[in-house]
Amino acid sequence: MGDIKLIILLLVLLFQISVAAQKNKKTKLKQDSIPDYENSTLFDSEEILYFDLKLNKKDVLNDIGDDRIYHWAKVKYKDANGDSVKLKIKVKTRGHYRRSAQNCNFPPLKLKIPKKVRWSENVFSGQSRIKLVVPCFINRERLQEMVMKEYLAYKMYNLFTKNSYKVRLVQINLIDSLKNEKLFSFNGFFIEETKQMAQRNNGKIIKLTNFSQKKVNKEEMVQLAVFQYFIGNTDWAVTGLHNIKLLFVNNNITPVAVPYDFDWCGFVNAPYAEPAPQIGTSSVKERVYRGYARTVDEYSPVIKKFNDNQKQIYQLFENNKLISENTKKNTKKYFDDFYEIINNPKKVNSNFIKKARK
Q: What does the alpha-carbon distance between residue 72 and residue 15 come to, in Å, rounded to a whole number?
């Protein structure tokens, strides 16, 4: 009888050990799958990141349907010591409009960073899945500049609030792994992961598609709406979360609206961008205020912030060597028109109060 009790006790003990081992295994797998953003330095530098991206052109660039998968690829770059670093990652096409072959001959990409790369010391340390914005058509200089201007839109919004996406400029040599030959080089930029942006701001992203502009943080909402007017962007909406994320900071029940995807704005002026019919304009360059009406007192601090940041805003595109002098000249004129409006009380009343959404 004593032997039977001992056997039962051993079996129970073995079962408990097995359960604990499985639990530890699951915990470890879960921990391994969580990006370590605190160790990430990808978005800490203002320098252009140069690297080779080697992939199967046919498999990756033709995989643009709804059931896309990640494909293996290789990245090669030189570290701070000048040593060559080679990494295996995964890549797939992404996006909506620009993913279609009818609209662009080169779709946006997303890089998936394997655990082995993520947890080792390299430029992608701590990352998980990174969006890469690329030119819509490689052989068109205007569309190369378009990407640079969209990059600058993110950089300009960073001047107003930390509740915004960081970006990193890249220059990539694309190499076809099948033929082992260089296809072309292009400039693009990485966009900070949404979870990383939220964690950096001690917040969480929650999808609430029927949320109203009136229910988000008022001060930042006014700032966002005026900024979208500044760059000539109407391609956004809080309700429906169109190019907007809701960030709940420090467990506050009132979220902050965070914008992204600026390629349809008037400042970028992409050849494929068209204003929505309900906007009632013939060009995306024509500014339309899409925020709700606020009082003059509520607009005043936002206008002051734009005036305080004016020099830095202009320097961002004036110092950019990847933008032509003609584009810089046209950009300055477009921004000058905005500053003339916000520093004229009558025009503020007309554009931001009378013409605001009711």
A: 40
Q: Where are the alpha helices (DSSP H) in the chain?
A: 2-33, 57-61, 115-118, 141-158, 194-200, 218-230, 296-318, 325-342, 345-348
d(CA 110, CA 190) in angstroms, rounded, equals 9
Any idea which residue has 């896309």 for tokens? 68
CA dihedral 162, 164, 169, 173 (to 10 degrees): 140
pTM: predicted TM-score of the whole model, two decimal places: 0.89
Q: What tokens were used for 220?
A: 């930042």
Judge residue 298's burial from the number of C-beta atoms within 10 Å of its C-beta, 0-12 exposed, 13-18 middle, 19 or more buried: middle
Q: What are 206-264's pLDDT values in tens digits? A: 999 889 999 999 999 999 999 999 999 999 999 999 999 999 999 999 999 999 999 99
H or E element: which one contains 188?
strand 181-191
How far is it, in rounded angstroms, from Cα 316 to Cα 322?
A: 11
For the chain, the structural domain boundaries read 37-194, 202-354
